[in-house]
Amino acid sequence: MTTMTLNHRRRARTFTVALAAGALALAGCSSGGGSDPKESKEPEMTSQGITLGTPADSTGPAKELPGAQKGGTVTVLQRDAFEHLDPGQIYVSDELIMQTLYNRTLTNYRIDDKTGKVKLVGDLATDTGKSSDGGRTWTYTLKDGLKFEDGSPITSKDVRHAVERLYAPFQTNGPTYLQQWLSGDGQKYRKALPDGPYKGKHLPKTVLDTPDDKTVIFHFDQPRAEVPFAVAMPNIGAVPPEKDTKEKYDKAPVASGPYKIKDFKPGKGVQFVRNPHWDPRTDSIRHQYVDTYDVSFGHQWVDSTRRLQAAKGDDRNGMTFTNAVDPSQISTVLKDKEAMARSMTETQPYVDVVSINTDRVKDKKVREAIAWAFPSGQYLQQFGGPKAGEIGGGLVGPTLKGYNTSFDPFQKRKYPGGNAKKARELLKAAGEDGYELVYGYGNGDTHQDAAVVVERALERAGFTVQKKEIDQSTYYTQIGKVDNKYDLYRSSWGADWPSASTVVPPLYDGKNVYNDSANYSHLDVPWINKEIARVAKVSDLNRATAEWMKLSEKIFTKEVPAVPTFYNRLFTLWGPGLGGVKWNAVYGAVDPTAVFVK
Amino acid sequence: MLRFLARRTLGAIVILLLISAITFFLFFALPAEPARLACGKNCDPTSLAIINKNLGLDQPVPVQYAKFMVGIFVGRDFAVGHCDAPCFGYSFVSQEPVWGTIVDRFPTTLSLAVGGAAVFLVFGVGIGMIAAWRRGTWVDKFVSSLSLLGASMQIYFVGVLCLAWFVSGLGIMEQPAYHSVTDNPAKWFSGMLLPWLVLSLIFMANYSRMTRSQMVEQLQEDHVRTARAKGLSGRTVFFRYAWRGAIAPIVTIFGIDLGSLFGGAMVTEYTFTLHGIGRLAVESVQLTDLPMLMGVMLVSAAAIVVFNILVDAAYAFIDPRVRLA
Amino acid sequence: MTTLTKPDDGATPPTAPGADAFLSVRDLYVRFSTEDGVVKAVDGLSFDLERGRTLGIVGESGSGKSVTNLTVLGLHDPRTTEVRGEIRLDGRELTGAPERTLETLRGNTMAMIFQDPLTALSPYYTVGRQIAEPFRKHTGASKREARSRAVEMLTKVGIPNPALRVDDYPHQFSGGMRQRAMIAMALVCNPDLLIADEPTTALDVTVQAQILDLLKDLQQEFGSAIILITHDLGVVANTADDLLVMYAGRAVERGTVREVLRAPRHPYTWGLLGSMPRLSSDVDAPLNPIPGTPPSLLAPPPGCPFHPRCAFTGEVDGARCHTERPVLPERRGGACHLTDERKQTLFTEQIKPRLGRG
């Protein structure tokens, strides 16, 4: 569940990473961590198909881990500071994984301790929801014994309040699926409750109903098959109305999970301690082994890698949610057997593509030629090779339901350097030999190196490439302009839940062509628009996910709005003092909910 | 002296006002869009407009500037409440008061600057003195080449290397971190030691070279020869006469260095994961956080301006020929 | 090749004639190593000085007069300077004496007045402190005693309001006052030997005279021996008893002031006299600067070092001037191959008329 914002921040900070990375080139030796066969044991992600759990799966407590014990402090090293603690404002992956410690939502993802298999189960709710009225009405029943950190019970009013406050103008950062489905597309939903619930108004019972303390009912105007996923987003939880401090809630939210916030120092760190009012019998997902999670920010990858590899002092019990092993240190870590035993390389839901500006490159043949010529494999190598990602064939990555391993229309896996011959033929056929392309890229080291590789491959295929550097900190603003003057630029997208429904519409719906939209290709094709509207109404979850997948593939082969490059991977370490470390494939981060200090 | 201070303070205020205006207006000349950062993933123009309104970015730039400047002196009201003077507003990113954040980060920068400066001043000048005392001998040559080596180092290089060797490898030094000096002086010291040493390494070279050349120059001065002709011992001549003459340029550079260190030591702070003013400055630029950027710029500029005044004032004490007016 | 004839070869009796002199310099050689080579700054110099007398040393810049005196005080840089020969002060050998010994002598038994009082005084300390400093060091006086001594000295050298001016910094003094302060500083310990290195060059003419008078007065009071270094023969004429003319690190003529000025016995001295303006001379009479430039001390000319600039080498047999170094007689005379008689004739017939003297 990456977001644009994450990547925005991530790229914005490449400067500082590069700063340190340059220095460590020495320690990292030379091989760059690409070709060593020993490291090829990357995850074979088949479409594992996230399933909906039963009420039994939703019933706590979570199964004890062998050897787990209570106590201890876990040190968490993160690069980017958490900006938001208010579950309503959370949308980036490091914050998504963090909020699982203190925030509970109607449904949530249960990750098997051994297999890593993901199941959607009820979290605050007893199950993943009951639909009626052909998928237009969804009913959730809250579990017994749910309490906030102050000991007060969690009721349906708190859930209603959590949803209604998302309509207030200060709530701008979080996901908007549920609000839009309940009250209207785009930002129109805000009109249904312009001040949120803060001036005594509520959504009508025909939209959101709480007939008793335990029941929450959502009414939609069309079938909505994916409500169980939408209510797993962090903003569909419980917020006590009398404790809601609006903007200030972002600094001190009320916890419903096993941990509560003890000390939040914006920009520096946050400490989580046990929430004594959390009852393990109500929770089938989380444990409460550790006494304290001590999260500190500002650790460049170079720094966290060094510390976790050395595991000195407090770092013995150290981990990171989303910091990767720095590309410059990959080969050193690979040689360190002891450290490798406490590492993981897992696929994230983020997919990197290079978007083609279809306003400028109108000829589909030319776009196809670009797609064939693009050196995705060499490009990935610049970002760290197989430890940083897997060459992608399309728009939808391995973590999504219905992922098709064999989909690779431009044979990116076969031609890591691009198929120049095929591209040249296509370009000739289009009568566009020497076609001039403007390639825009961020001015960080990695992107600059990658740009050279891209330029060479495209020129080999008969293009004339003009490289244009864009300042890192304004990169997304610049490429987000509808009238930008670039033909090609990198962008990244992650699904909000394991279905292509959170990929295809935001990226390729024609109504999303405006400044700062994720539709960086400016694609507005009638058949696609029509198809998106149709699939959105499919009421069966399994059929819907399959249809979205099919549509995503069709868009790629028929319109070529982007070049697939790679599916992101996270290669990361944790300290030898920890057990129960597992991978959260939905958020693309290391999951802390079962961690214990040995 | 009073007149001097009054005149310079006035000048400083004018400079700071100019810097504030330039920073503010230049920011809007950037293709940056601060609202974008608070706009989540499914951003659209309507929601951008809401955020712009929330941040006050919907108003004309001169109006925003005026409000900002007035806020510094008399405070300002925001949606989240009143912000007392000096009010630099709230960070676009963390929604924290800018002034509070700066006050929070300053002790780190102060510790780094003062400690580092103490180390590089004592060792830099000391080494320079030794080289000057033994000028022409192997000691001088050894120390001078060591200086050159130090000067050609980069903090991020030496810093990362030291971390790898002394902290992660040998484990003889503590993981650098800032602990409050009032809470636990010992921890404060051990946490800052490596940053001090690495930061000072780069400066030290500069100071030792400068001290040496200043001392050698001073030792050839006529009045130093006079002092020897009076029968004063070599030591007295060296420390009382030559050293006295060498102080002024060292103090000048030191004032400028310390002033800019108070504005944050960016690379050092990143290398050692310290949360000081330098990091704040870089982040505010990268995250297009205008209020924070303004706050940090003004504080850094003020530090440099103040230290310049202090250096000039110090001249009155160092050199009796200088009279302040 | 130069036939090096040491000036004291044979001429010097076993007991050096200067043995009983207060200051006796014998065969002094001073060489600096520089990047360009070895500079022979002083090349076999000998002279004596009695108590209560003033020796003037004249010569162009670079003739070795200042170096000689710095060497006497031991102020040369021992790392780059090679000193050979003898310097005896009151019977004590100074060359090779430990720095500690020299420190107790400097400012105490022997003191020096430098040329430019603006740069020679430290700008960072008060005049009083700078005067008091050597006094405290050498006499062990208290701060208070030293201060009143400084006031006393300032009074002696004629500084008005000495009790107030003692706390002034040098930059608050005028040029003449600074030189007086300098003298006060040099005399604070009643030195037996005072070396004044161009003490009046930086001053205007009226002040010059005052300072020279002051030196004379003080000498009478303390009975010190004075070495007066200058390039100005006028200054010497009024102040010194004996005169030493230096050229290229060597003494080329010596005698009493009267002797040398009346009947100079070296063509270089003639040149010096010719290049000196006189009030008594006709304003239209041209000055006659010595042709050519002072020789490089890295590679001084063989034979008589003055021969490239000398108009009279033709008067000497063969090429002696080019090959043989002339000897300087012990008490009176010039280091020149011309015979004294010939020089007398030449001076009377050719030089004197040009000097415009009667």
Walkthrough of the structure:
The complex is a heterotrimer of chains A (598), B (325) and C (358). Helix content of chain A is 26%, strand content 19%. Chain A is built from 18 helices and 22 strands. In chain A, the strands form 6 sheets. A 6-stranded mixed sheet of chain A has the order 14-18-13-17-15-16. Chain B contains 13 helices and 2 strands, in the order H-H-H-H-E-E-H-H-H-H-H-H-H-H-H. In chain B, a hairpin with a 2-residue loop joins strand 1 and strand 2. In chain B, helix 5 runs antiparallel to helix 6 and helix 7 packs across helix 8. The longest helix of chain B is centred in the middle third of the chain and has 36 residues. The N and C termini of chain B lie close together (6 Å). The mean pLDDT of chain B is 86. Chain C is of the alpha/beta class and 358 residues long. Chain C has a 7-stranded mixed sheet, with helices on both faces. The N terminus of chain C is likely disordered. Chains B and C meet through helix 9 and helix 10 of B and helix 2 and helix 4 of C.
